[in-house]
Amino acid sequence: MSNWKVGQIKVKVGAYTPAPSAKVTVATGPAAPSVVVPAPPAARDPDADLARLAEIQAAVKAEDYDRASDLADEALKSGLEHSLVLNLAALKREDEGRYDEALATLARAIALDPRDIGARNAAGLVLARVERYADALAMFDGVVAIQPAFAGAHCARGTALEALGRLKEAEVAYKHTLDLQPQNLGALQGLANLLSRRGAHAQARPLAETVLAAEPNFPDAVMVLAAADAAEGAGERAERRLELLAADARLTPQQRALAQGLLGDVLDAQDRPADAFQAYAACNMGLFRAYAPVHDQGIGALEFSRGMLEELAAIPASAWTSAAAPRADGPKTHVFLLGFPRSGTTLLEQVLASHPDVEALEERETLLDATRAFLRQPSDLGRLAVAREAELAPLRDAYWAKVRAEGAEPAGKVFVDKHPLNTFRLPLILKLFPDAKILFARRDPRDVVLSCYRRRFAMSGSAYQLLTLPGAAGYYDAAMRIAELVEPAMGPRTHVVRHEALVDGFDTVVGEVCAALGLPWVEAMRNFADQARDRAVATPSGAQLSRGLSAEGVGAWRRYRDQLAPVLPTLEPWVTRFGYSAT
């Protein structure tokens, strides 16, 4: 169990709504709260059950959750089915890392009493802990539907929304939490996180300090303050904060890894690349080990992409062309913005999103149905190559339904679907959307791989590949080779945007992009930083974009030349092909 109260352990065992079935209500003493118990089976001893429940509830009132959950576990094993017992028994299973059992136990509690907000909220928190954020959000939505004034559930909704990259919605949830409960530490910390992510360190600092005053060394708050220190030039102070945090025995492996990753950024800002790289390596190895049980099983994303290459090599590029009638309710122009993570896709998307004629969507899984139908395994590419319109049309409809479900309204606009990893889905895109244009973001491969290694992404099968330099370089190589194999089909409708050229000659490059998409130039695109702050960018680029155009990362690989040496041979062919200097 967490040693920090910010995690809202209390709401997992909070008040529950009695089930509408037959009940017996008994008070255990003049000052004791009443205990509501479903009528027990004839074989049970009602008095003994009531005594057990009274003992459990006394432990809860004393905030002795370890004892309460132990007592509840014993009661459950004896056959006593009660929502409070099930809730606390689930807490014990969660504390022991038995998450599936905890969720199954909570499902029994919810089945026993569908309006038990304690069990529903607890289930949401367990789902969030195992990073099933969409499922967690659905559970929290159910809680607030039953009890709209439950501040803890609104805060938990914010956390899930933040993890899903829906930052504006997360901000609304955190602020609503504070309307209901002004000193809710979780919501204060959530807002501090969001402000820090967009580079608003001065506003984030007092919120994090409030959290730390109540919960010393709370990880997120320390990292917010360290980021603020670093932004203000107080690198040594940030370094001390993070070193002390990383030494805290209460941290989870993920928290310790993230602290080390931020330490790497602090050391990099002090021009200490060797020390910074050591911190990045510690961060990535920590995350690699923590997520190995999930992402190091079966076929990984890199192996899958190499399987795609074998299949694509045997399929003529002409197979990826098709014909589809334009939609009456579709966009004026449909654009896929892709490339590879850290290639400049977010900058380009923010610039385009500043245009009044553009509707942009940032990194949503809009091709999920098509991927399930034709890209579950590399060999599916053979079926996709010969797929008929009757098979493709429903997937096209599902795509547009997903786009609208994500809040985008593309009709009549230039619609930009930005997702750098859609490079791996190029065969799907070309087959489904023969009229779509493709913006391909390109950046020095060495800067791309270094930046992928240094940044902390929301964990996924693809992000897991970026935790090692060989994995990141290999995954980049696979993406570029996939693009190369389908280039004959995509070439005529593709516009390559070189990141370094965009930074060096913004107006010229953006003007060329506008011409390629049929857009007029507008001055608002120069003010993309304001748009980025308002849209709350969810990628690691958010804070940098809020400061405006910067050449900060151009050529950064040179400072890490020695550390990158093992993967430079993998990247060298692309460095040459794309016209970058060898030195």
Question: Any overview of this molecule?
Answer:
- The radius of gyration is 26 Å and the shape is globular.
- Strand 1 and strand 2 (34-38) form a beta hairpin.
- The chain has 583 residues and is α/β, with parallel strands linked by helices.
- Helix 10 (185-197) runs parallel beside helix 12 (219-231).
- Helices cover 59% and strands 6% of the residues.
- The strands form 2 sheets. Strands 4-5-3-6-7 form a 5-stranded parallel beta sheet. The protein has a two-stranded antiparallel ribbon with strand order 1-2.
- The protein has helices spanning 9-12, 46-61, 65-77, 83-95, 99-112, 117-129, 133-146, 151-163, 167-180, 185-197, 201-214, 219-231, 235-246, 253-269, 273-295, 301-313, 345-353, 368-374, 380-385, 389-405, 426-432, 445-454, 461-465, 469-490, 499-504, 506-517, 528-535, 542-545, 561-564, 568-577, and strands spanning 23-27, 34-38, 333-338, 358-362, 414-418, 437-442, 494-498.
- The protein folds into 3 domains: 1-130, Tetratricopeptide repeat domain (Serine Threonine Protein Phosphatase 5, Tetratricopeptide repeat, Alpha Horseshoe), CATH 1.25.40; 183-297, Tetratricopeptide repeat domain (Serine Threonine Protein Phosphatase 5, Tetratricopeptide repeat), CATH 1.25.40.10; 301-570, P-loop containing nucleotide triphosphate hydrolases (Rossmann fold).
Strand neighbour order, sheet with most strands: 4-5-3-6-7
**Beta strand count:** 7
Portion of residues in helices?
55-70%
Query: How would you describe the oligomerization state of the chains in this entry?
Result: single chain
How many whole angstroms does the radius of gyration measure? 26 Å
**SS-based class:** alpha/beta
Show unreliable segments.
7-37
At CATH level 3, the topology of the largest domain is: Rossmann fold
